[in-house]
């Protein structure tokens, strides 16, 4: 009997020591990946609140982001400026994807989805998929967090690496960051809340509700003169060939060898625009854009009361880089 008690005590000590060793080692990368896979499959709805800091080409901006998600495919991404005023809302429901600009009472509707390698700032399911599918990732664990560094595609001209920091216990997002190819931080999203218990009604994903978030009176900047807004970056060998300014609409034309590009700038008309065919949703670091399909494509985006339309045969990655370079430009 005494021997059995001694053996039982020794076995208890061994079990405790083994548990301490395992706890000291912490989560392995394999166990985290498996838990992330299970979390993605079980995540039916959530609400997240985050602050995004964007640093591009000498310009620094702050956005307040609130995301609602309802499985299998509904979402609502609200983007507000540093003052908390809602500028744009991205909504997906059974009718398609909408980009709504409440201050301008303007919306785009199209059929499609996020472009490849896009959407990984706002939708946590996409973040998890990016981690699981990354062919090149680095895993580290610190007190209270686990971190994945993910190498981006070679054809991405802006982003070299994505970093995802998760809570060690829940694996909920704490921070997402993008770095350029020189290792400089471009975008940081700091999550303040992540609530998987939030539930929503179908009407919460109605674009008309998002339009109602705008002011009753049109802002003065939405109708006043804006000058000529020129991009500060163009592909090598490209240059401007023509500027037309009619007072309400600006048309800029560029050429690079045999290729051409047209950039149109105007105040948008208060209406819903439905784009024919399929299109892709692109994130211009806080400004959503739509890119149509085809050899000759058009990218649409709205910023500071001006609607832009860029048409040409350049790759969407180059068009996105040109579009982002207009953010630091003021009308001349």
From TrEMBL:
Coiled coil: none annotated. The lineage of its organism: Bacteria, Bacillati, Bacillota, Bacilli, Bacillales. This is Outer membrane lipoprotein-sorting protein-like protein. SUPFAM superfamilies: Prokaryotic lipoproteins and lipoprotein localization factors (SSF89392). InterPro entries: LolA/LolB/LppX (IPR029046), Sporulation_related (IPR052944). It comes from the Bacteria. PANTHER family: SPORULATION PROTEIN YDCC. It comes from Kyrpidia tusciae (strain DSM 2912 / NBRC 15312 / T2) (Bacillus tusciae).
């Amino acid at each position: 009997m005494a021997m059995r008690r001694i053996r039982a005590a020794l076995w208890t000590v061994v079990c405790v020591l083994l548990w301490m060793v395992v706890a000291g080692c912490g989560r392995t990368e394999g166990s985290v990946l498996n838990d992330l896979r299970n979390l993605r499959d079980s995540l039916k709805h959530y609400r997240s609140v985050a602050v995004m800091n964007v640093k591009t080409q000498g310009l620094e901006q702050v956005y307040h982001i609130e995301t609602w998600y309802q499985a299998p495919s509904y979402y609502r991404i609200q983007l507000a400026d540093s003052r908390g005023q809602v500028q744009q809302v991205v909504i997906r429901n059974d009718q398609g994807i909408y980009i709504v600009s409440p201050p301008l009472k303007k919306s785009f509707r199209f059929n499609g989805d996020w472009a490849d390698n896009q959407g990984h700032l706002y939708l946590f399911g996409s973040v998890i998929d990016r981690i699981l599918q990354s062919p090149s990732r680095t895993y580290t664990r610190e007190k209270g967090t686990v971190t994945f560094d993910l190498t981006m595609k070679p054809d991405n001209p802006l982003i070299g690496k994505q970093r995802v920091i998760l809570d060690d216990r829940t694996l909920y997002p704490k921070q997402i960051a993008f770095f350029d190819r020189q290792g400089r931080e471009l975008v940081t999203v700091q999550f303040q809340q992540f609530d998987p218990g939030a539930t929503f009604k179908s009407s919460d994903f109605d674009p008309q509700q998002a339009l109602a978030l705008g002011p009753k009176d049109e802002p003065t900047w939405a109708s006043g003169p804006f000058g000529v807004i020129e991009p500060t970056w163009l592909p090598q060998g490209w240059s401007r060939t023509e500027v037309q300014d009619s007072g309400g609409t600006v048309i800029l034309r560029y050429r690079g060898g045999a290729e051409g590009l047209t950039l149109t700038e105007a105040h948008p008309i208060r209406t819903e625009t439905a784009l024919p065919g399929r299109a892709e949703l692109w994130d211009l670091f806080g400004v959503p854009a739509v890119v149509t399909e085809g050899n000759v494509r058009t990218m649409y985006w709205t910023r500071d009361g001006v609607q832009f339309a860029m048409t040409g045969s350049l790759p969407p990655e180059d068009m996105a880089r040109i579009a982002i370079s207009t953010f630091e430009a003021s009308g001349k």
